[in-house]
Amino acid sequence: xxxxxxxxxxxxxxxxxxxxxxxxxxxxxxxxxxxxxxxxxxxxxxxxxxxxxxxxxxxxxxxxxxxxxxxxxxxxxxxxxxxxxxxxxxxxxxxxxxxxxxxxxxxxxxxxxxxxxxxxxxxxxxxxxxxxxxxxxxxxxxxxxxxxxxxxxxxxxxxxxxxxxxxxxxxxxxxxxxxxxxxxxxxxxxxxxxxxxxxxxxxxxxxxxxxxxxxxxxxxxxxxxxxxxx
Length: 230
Ligand code: C5P
Description:
The protein is 42% helix and 16% strand. It contains ten helices and eight strands.
C-alpha cells in the first residue's frame, strides 16, 4: 500500500495510554501526531519509542518565539528523528526563514499553522488583525510558502480555496475529519476523509474517530480504504 495519508492524533495525557492505542495500529497504515499535552508529560522518551516502533511522528508543538529561539528549538526537535514539525506563521517572515534554515529540506518536514481555527473575527480584532479570517489565512499560507516551508495546517473547509492558490507540492494537513455516520464531538466544521482529499488535502489529522473507536485498527483500515478507492 502507498504511504498512508492518515495522521492519528494521540491526544492522551499519559504515555501508557498513548502506547496502548499505538500497539493496536500499524506504521504502514498511519503516522502519529504528538501534541503539547502528551509531549509535556512524556517528552523525547516517548518520541523515541514511537519512532523505534517504525512510526513517522508529527510533533505538533507550534513554535512561536524570536527567530533564534525557534531555530534552535526546531533543530533540537528534528534531532529526535521526527517526520514533521510545525511553527506559527504569525511569528513572521524572519522566524519562518530561521526555522527553515534550521531544518534542511528532505529532513523533518516543516509546516506552519496560519490562524487558529478557534479564533473568530472578534478575537482577531482584539489583537489588531483586521480583515476577513479567510483572507488572513490565505496571506499567511502564501507567506509560509514564500519562506520555503513545506506546507500548512488548514481546516477541511479551507482546503479547497487554498489548494487553488498554493503550489501543487505545498502540503495541506487537515484536521476536523469525521466519518459521515460519526459524532462531530466539539468540531464545528467537519469533512469526511474523501471530501477532504477531494478538496486537495495531502494528510488528514484524525483523533477521536480512531482513538475512541471500539476497534481502532478497523476504523483506520476503513478510512484508508475509503480514500485509497478514490
Ligand atoms: O479528535 P479530533 O479528530 O477532533 O482531533 C483533531 C486533532 O487535530 C486534535 O489533536 C486537535 O488539537 C487538532 N487540530 C484541530 N483543529 C485545528 C488544528 C489542530 O482539531 N485547527
